[in-house]
UniProtKB/TrEMBL annotation:
Keywords: Aminotransferase, Pyridoxal phosphate, Transferase
Name of a matching Pfam family: Aminotran_1_2
UniProt organism field: Roseateles puraquae
Top-level division of the source organism's lineage: Bacteria
Name of this chain's protein: Methionine aminotransferase
Taxonomic lineage from the root: Bacteria, Pseudomonadati, Pseudomonadota, Betaproteobacteria, Burkholderiales
Family: Belongs to the class-I pyridoxal-phosphate-dependent aminotransferase family.
Boundaries of every Aminotransferase class I/classII large domain copy: 29-377
GO molecular function, one term: kynurenine-oxoglutarate transaminase activity
Amino acid sequence: MPALPTKLPHTGTTIFTVMSALAAEHGAVNLGQGFPDFGADPALLQALTDAMAAGHNQYPPMTGVPALRQAVAAKLNSLYGAHYDADRDITITAGGTQGLITALHACVGAGDEVLIIEPAYDSYDPAIRLAGAVPVGVPMTADYRIDWAAVQAAITPRTRALVLNTPHNPSGRVATADDLQALAAIAEQHDLFIVSDEVYEHMVFDGAQHESVARHPALRERSFLVSSFGKTFHVTGWKVGFVAAPPALSAAFRRLHQYTVFTVHTPSQHALAAYLADPAPWQALSNFYQAKRDTFRTALAATPLKLLPCEGTYFQTVDYSAVSDLPELDFARWLTTEVGVAAIPLAGFYQRPQERRHVRFCFAKREDTLAEAARRLVAGLGR
Ligand code: PMP
Ligand code: GLN
């Protein structure tokens, strides 16, 4: 057999898969990989059954089921004051991951540089490399704010795009209106595309609002807005999301989408379209997760872990330096095998090794799961 060529010679198995496997092997409470351990709304599941029974089982239009595109456009336009056209500017994708990689391939090519804000979700780096471009990591500040001076300093004549993620995985930080102003100024000055990962758009706490690129006309016109129903409706396994982008960007996106994915699971799209008729479920999401955040933080206060701010997402990052000197991956393994709680080391979100001692817990879990995790952490880490 000939050698298999690889475009990703230094890329291993994603940390989420590694930690979930370790958690399963050791019977640990899995607060690593981000997914709910509770069910979706029965009404959504019924809508899926209904869609299949109604015969929605063949290829949908290449860009997505019209009713779903219309529901998405209506929501974006009313929430963010945008003007996306359902037919022209919205494409249904196989989750956020596909939206991200296709958007990146649509706007960058060989030799281009793409800025990613580190810690950065782990699919950005390989997606950029597969496009022949170079990911350039720009570190956040020590308290996980975007460092706009560092972003500006990282720009070269080859910089073509920036990947924004707010609410931010893993830190749980949420970008402010000032952040988006700063981004708009830089993007205009250097003529950059923005790939905006907003999969946690409906999980923002303490009365703050999500700053979508769709709210800012100067950003909207150069942005691919990526989101995912998996997060919003507790169905990460459905892998249905969308990309909203202005006409030229959507046209470029669809040129690739049609030959890499073509279409996305039809009945799920019908179910989501019907379910989106009622705004209550996504409107309730921030309060729902804020309560889980508060429960989990209160429980962790009895451990020596230092809780970092959590403004959005369903992730709580902690500093464990009072407990251990182990590097992050080693600590996450130890926590999983010895304490019985799986976490994600933030090291998985950087190109280069870090000095920090931070791991991320997912609190998208039932009360009893969070209580059992807290019990093990209190017992295993002492005070
Ligand atoms: N972006 C971020 C920041 C994520 O956390 C995730 C995963 N949950 C995704 C993208 C991918 O979303 P999906 O599962 O819909 O592909
Ligand atoms: N986005 C989820 C997380 O950050 C997991 C997605 C995955 O497993 N690739 O945990």
